[in-house]
Amino acid sequence: QKEVEQNSGPLSVPEGAIASLNCTYSDRGSQSFFWYRQYSGKSPELIMFIYSNGDKEDGRFTAQLNKASQYVSLLIRDSQPSDSATYLCAVGISNFGNEKLTFGTGTRLTIIP
Amino acid sequence: DAGVIQSPRHEVTEMGQEVTLRCKPISGHDYLFWYRQTMMRGLELLIYFNNNVPIDDSGMPEDRFSAKMPNASFSTLKIQPSEPRDSAVYFCASSSGTAGYTFGSGTRLTVV
Question: Across all residues in chain A, what is the average pLDDT?
Answer without folding.
Answer: 92
